[in-house]
């Protein structure tokens, strides 16, 4: 139906009931809003999380836990450099980290037992030991889905849980983002693509002309609700339908969501500071989303060879730096300066905009890399090259904002970076800290598929040093 031919004549019940079926990410907005209304809480804290996911496993001994005194086949070729925080050294390839070290913390002692990518993703992202050590399909909800469930009543005019990925990797099971027994209403609203691309658009927010015309029809249908109810449904069965469908249409016709995703509104100098590529502009979009009120934003940063960044034959798509995949050090020379610029821009921006109490930033992958370097023939290069394999027994991650005490190194590993030495922590301790920041009771339960009450976290304590 076009605008020219639209006639606000008799309206069928079937047409009216379709008013709320324009779903974000394939989900019915009306259904999502109906589920949100089941909650009986009246308010939530004005807090948010930006979660930067580095799939594949970042090399902790090339980034935040360097061991210059370890044997040569452990320490690698790069040198640590000091920062404004005594005792907090970082890799020489990340010089921008040095001046902001008083605004973030490095945790060096998180560990778990799942060395497979699938098992590692599931273990880290759910706070539970997965039933199978491989595969990416969750049997427990990812943390972002828990947040979406706990804040389902928090209607802010844009999705409460958002993720950004490369095209073709938007499925929830690519990174174990699944909601498991909470159901598909609690998976992230995914924004695939490169926000620095001139043709980039958020497809489920930017309506096509055809959808726009149909939406106009549905808005008119909603305006005619009273007449429809009197003429068709004397029982009042449509009362509830009206509320949820009206909210759904409000979300789709509101400018708030489109504005939050529109990074073109940011100054060119700030966009340059982040970097005009997928990683940089995703990070900037994340800041815009949490500032607008989104509760949990996950941005995936895996392939640095995008948007004009030179490709590298000895490089690897994600952070999976096996020797067969890449030359560890050559890949790091390209990857880490990009990472350095993006993460420090995000930390700096959070503080400059006064969001450091509202927004908690977490940057991590599923595990670290083997402390001992291996040498194998590269699949692409066909020559022997150094690499590191999967290593869940030690890893490093960065946290900032959240009103926490910063400028700290929390925990340590042994002299060769193999296992935690001081303050051993698990992913659950991180998530307990995140839930506390969001005002979520980690002992709250939700029923699994069999109806058993499952606590949000089976164990874990907030990290006292940063609260």
CATH class group of the domain at 48-196 and 291-342 and 356-466: Alpha Beta
Cα-atom Rg, whole angstroms?
A: 24 Å
Separation of the first and last Cα atoms: 56 Å
Continuous helix count: 13
Instruction: Please name the CATH topology of the domain at 48-196 and 291-342 and 356-466.
Output: Alkaline Phosphatase, subunit A
Largest sheet: 8 strands, mixed
The assigned structural class equals alpha/beta
Q: From the structure provided, what is the oligomeric state, counting identical versus distinct chains?
A: single chain
Number of strands: 18
Proportion of helical residues: 25-40%
CATH architecture of the domain at 48-196 and 291-342 and 356-466: 3-Layer(aba) Sandwich
Summarize the structure.
The protein has 467 residues and is an alpha/beta fold. The protein contains 13 helices and 18 strands.
Task: Note the topology.
Layout lengths: L12 H5 L11 H8 L11 E6 L18 H4 L4 E2 L8 E2 L12 E7 L6 H10 L16 H8 L10 E5 L23 E4 L16 H15 L1 H8 L6 H15 L1 H7 L6 H7 L3 H15 L3 E5 L27 H25 L6 E6 L3 E2 L4 E4 L6 E4 L2 E2 L3 E7 L6 E3 L1 E2 L6 E3 L4 H12 L6 E3 L5 E3 L12
Parallel strand pairs: 1-7, 1-8, 4-14, 5-6, 5-7
Antiparallel strand pairs: 2-3, 4-13, 8-13, 9-12, 10-11, 15-16, 17-18
